[in-house]
Amino acid sequence: MKRLRFLFIIIFQCLIFSITKAQTNVTLSGIVKDKNSKANLPYVNVVLKTEKDSSFISGTVSNEDGRFSISKIKSGNYYLEVSFVGYKPTKKTLFIGNLSEYLDIKTIEIEEKSTELQEVSVIGKTAGISEEMDKKTFSLKGNISQNGGSVLQAMQNLPGVTVQDGKVQLRGNDKVTVLIDGKQTALTGFGNQTGLDNIPASAIEKIEIINNPSAKYDANGNAGIINIIYKKNKKEGFNGKVGFTTGLGSLWERKENLPTIRPQYTFTPKINPSVSLNYKKNNINVFFQGDYLYTETLNKNEYVTRKYDNGEVRNSQLKRNRNTHFTTLKSGVDYAINDQNSLTISGLFGSEKIIDRGDQPFFNGDFSERKRLWQFLEDELKTTLMATANYQHKFIEAGHLLNIGFNYTFHREDEKYFYDNYLPTSTGTDAFKLLSDEQVYDLNFDYIKPLKYGRIETGIKFRNRNIPTNMQFIPGVNSILDINAGGWATYKELIPAVYGNYIFENKQWEAEIGLRVEYVKIQYDVNPDHIVYKSDGYNYTQPFPNLRLGYKLDENNKISFFYNRRVDRPNEVDIRIFPKYDDAEIIKVGNPALRPQFTNSIELGYKKSWGKGSLYNAIYHRFADGTITRISSTVPPSNLIYAVFQNANKSYNTGVEMVLEQEISKLYSFNINLNGYRNQIDAFTVVNKYPLTNTFSADQQEIYSGNIKMNNSFHFPNNIDAQITAIYLAPDIIPQGKIKSRFSLDFGLKKAIQKGKGELFFNATDLLNTMVIKKDIQGQGFYYTSDDYYETQVIRLGYSNKF
Residue 775's pLDDT is what? Predict the structure, then answer.
C-alpha cells in the first residue's frame, strides 16, 4: 500500500500538456426575399450580433440572387439584423451549435411595412471534449514530450489511449481502425492497425479519436477510429517548414544478456529530417511533405520462463536488435476549377526497410545447460504507393456538397528470414521468403445537405481488395521448418456499402441518427497441396445503426447517449496459413475459418464546462460475439507452442472515463484522464487444426483494470514551454493470461526563436526506466512468465523553421 500511495503521489505531482480544443467555425447562409412578391432581394444588409449585448460579429450584403453567407462564426446565441431601403429592419434570433460546419436558414422574408418575422434557430457542433462529445481532436504541436518520435509514441500521451505490444488501445480494446486523412491505407492497415511506430510524428498536424463513429465511417473497428491528419498548408505564395531531430535510446542495459549471445543494442541513434513545402497562387495550390526516419532500436528483449506439464522448465531470452529506414513522400495539387467545382489529386509513397538481428538462447531450469541457440536475420522491405483523386461540387447554398473520391493503393511486403539453429549435437541453417502484393480500389460518393436545424449526410462506397501471397521455405540440414505448409494463397475482399445520417440540433436537444448497410464477400483461396488448410470464405449483408442523443441542461452542462453496432472482420494476416518462426518455440499461424466479430456499444456521457476548464464523465459498455483472439496450445509429445487465431466466446468491456481540463493561469494548465473498466472473456472451447487437430478449452476470465494519465504544461516567459507526462497502467487480462502494471514519466522542453519562425525542443521518454512489460500466460500443457525490457527510454533534440 505504501508503494501504491507513493506511486499516486508521484502521478499527481506530474505536470501535463494542455490539449488544443477544436472550436468549430460555422458558415451561415440563406436568401432574402420580398414577403409579398417572393422576389429575391439583392444588396440587402445582413449583420450578425450577439444576443447578450448586441456586439457586432460580422456582416455582409446579399448578392444579385439575394443570397448571403457569413463565415467563421463560433458557437453561441446570436441574432441577424436584416435591413434594406424601403423595408422594415428585421431581427432573427439564431443558435449556432457545434454539429454542423455549414448551416442553411433557407429564406428570410421581409416586408415594406411593419411585419414581425418568426424566430429562426440554427445549428452547429456539440460542446464536449474538443467541443465534440463523440470526437476528441488533439494537435501534436503541443505534445512536446514526444516531439521527434513516431505517431505511435505520440499517441501514448493522449487521453483514453494506451499502447500495448505495438498496438493502440482505446479504453482497453485494440480493435481500432486507423485512418490517414479520413481514409484507410496500407500504411496503417485496412481494417486493422500497422506501421504506426514508423510514421514520424513530424509529418502529422493533428489526431482525431472517435469512440462512437457515425454511419458515414466504415463499420470495422468496435473500439473506435483514430484519424491521423497530415500537415497541409494553403497560405498564399511559397512557404514551408523544415525540421531535424536526433536522439539516443537504450542508454544503458536494464538486464544483462543470457550467456553466449551477441550484445544487445545500447545508445541507439535516431535521425528524423523533415520538410513541408507549399505554393499557392490564384486557383492552384501545390503541396509536398517529405519525412525520413532512421532508428536503431532494441525492439524486443524478453526474458521467459516456461514450465510444461511434463515437468520440464526452460529459460530463454528473445532479443531483437532492429534497424529501420522509413521514408514517406506525399505530394499533390488542389485546383479550384471555379467557385462551385474543385479537384484534388495527390500521391503518397512509403518505403519501410527493416533489418532485425535476433538471438534466442534456451537454458534448463537452473541455467546450467544451454539446450539451444536460435539466431535469425530478418530482411523486410515494405513499399506503399497510393494515388487519390477527389472532386467536390459546391451547390449554391453554403455547405451543400457532393464529394466523389477514388483511391488506389498498392502495397508490397517482401520478407526474408534466415535462421541458424544451434543444438548440442548439430547445427542447421533454414530460410524462408514471403512475397505479398496488395491492391485496393476504393470509390466513394458522399452528399451533404445543410438544413435549417442540422444536415443530412448520405453516400455509397465500393471497395475491391486483392492480396496474392507466396511463401517459399528453404530448409537446411536438420531443418525444423514445416516445408509442407508453404505455397501460395490469395485473399479477395469485395465490400459495397450505403449509408445515411441525419443530424439535428436546437438550443436544448441534439440528435444524430444513422444507418450503414454493408455487403461483404471474403474468399481465401489456398493451394490444394497445403497439409492442413483448405480454401474458405464467407459473405454477409448486415445493418450497422448508430444513435446519438444530447440534452443541454444549460450552456455549461450537457448529457449525451450513444449507441452503435460495429464489426471486426479478420484481416488477411489473421487468416494467413503460413507458420511464422520469429520465435523458435512459439509458432504463429492464421486460420482461414476465422469469422467476423460483431459488437454492440452504448455510452452515457456528461460534460460540465466552466471558465477555462471542463469535466467530462462517461459510462460505457461493449458486448462482442465471436471474439477474435490468438489461442496458444501444445501438441504432445512436442513442447512447441502453436498460437492460432480463433473465434472465442462472448466478451464484455464495461467502464467509466473521466477527463478533467483546467487552465490555472497563463503560466500553467493541466489535464487528467482516468479510465477504469472491467474486462470479461467467457469460457470457450475451440478446435485448432494446425499442426494437428487438437481441442483447447479456457475458463472465464475477468479483471478490473484501468489507467491514469496526468499531463501538465507550463508557459514561461521568453517563449519557453515545458511539459511533463505521467502514465500508470493497471494490471489487465490478455488472451490466456494477465499483463502486470506499468508506469512511465516523460518530459519535454520547447523554445520559440527567430521571432516565432524557429523552434528548438528537447525531450526524454520514460525518465525513470520503469516501463517493463510483464506477463503471465496459462496455456494448455504449459505455463510461462515473461519480462520484456525493450527500449523505452529515449532522449531527443530537434529544430524546426517556418518560412
Answer: 93
Residue 43's alpha-carbon distances to 60, 61, 731, in angstroms, are 9, 5, 66
- Going by C-beta distance under 8 Å and a sequence separation of 6 or more, which residues neighbour residue 745? 10, 14, 724, 725, 726, 727, 766, 767, 768, 770
Place of cell 448486415: 542
Query: What is the CATH number for 158?
Result: 2.170.130.10
CATH of residue 33 = 2.60.40.10
Q: Measured in whole angstroms, how far is the alpha carbon of residue 7 from the centre of its chain? A: 29
Q: Is residue 57 a part of any domain in this protein?
A: yes
In the numeric block, the cell 436568401 is attached to 31
Low-confidence spans in the chain with pLDDT less than 50:
1-23, 114-132
| Structural domain includes residue 492 | yes
- Quickly list H helices, 118-227: 151-155
- Cα–Cα distance between 207 and 438 in angstroms, integer? 26
Residues 754 and 625 in one domain: yes
What is d(CA 374, CA 359) in angstroms, rounded to the nearest whole number? 6
Strands 701-716 and 668-681: antiparallel
Q: How many domains does the chain have?
A: 3
Give the residue from 757, 758, 770, 734 showing the smallest Cα distance to 174. Answer: 734
Tell me what pLDDT residue 441 has: 96
Give every CB contact of residue 155 below 8 A, 6+ residues apart in sequence.
Answer: 161, 163, 168, 196, 207, 226
Do 380 and 460 lie in one domain? The reply is: yes
Whole-number pLDDT of residue 41: 78
68 and 204 part of one domain: no
d(CA 512, CA 529): 52
Are 534 and 621 part of one and the same domain? yes
Altogether, the residues listed in the chain come to a count of 803
Q: Are 48 and 61 in contact (CB under 8 A)?
A: no
71-93 as b/e: b if 16+ CB within 10 A: eebebbebbbbbebeebeebbbb
Residue 20 is predicted with a pLDDT of 36
Give the DSSP letter of residue 257. Answer: P
Q: DSSP string of 383-401? A: EEEEEEEEEEEE-SSTT-E
Residue 216 sits in the same domain as residue 351: no
pLDDT digits 0-9 by tens, 770-797:
999 999 988 777 888 999 999 999 999 9
Residues 346 and 218 in one domain: no
Q: Report pTM.
A: 0.79
| Residues 354 and 479 both lie in one domain | yes
pLDDT tens per residue across span 214-260: 898 889 888 888 888 887 766 778 988 899 999 999 998 999 999 99
Position 604 scores a pLDDT of 94
Three-state DSSP at 513 gives strand
Residue 310 lies in a domain: yes
Which of 230, 257, 278 marks a domain boundary? 230
Angle at 416 between CA 414 and CA 422, to 5 degrees: 165
As given in the structure block, the three cell numbers for residue 297 are 532500436
Q: What are the Cα distances from residue 653, in Å, to 119, 611, 641, 676, 706? A: 45, 34, 28, 10, 11
Residue 2 lies in a domain: no
Cα separation of 792 and 156, whole Å? 12
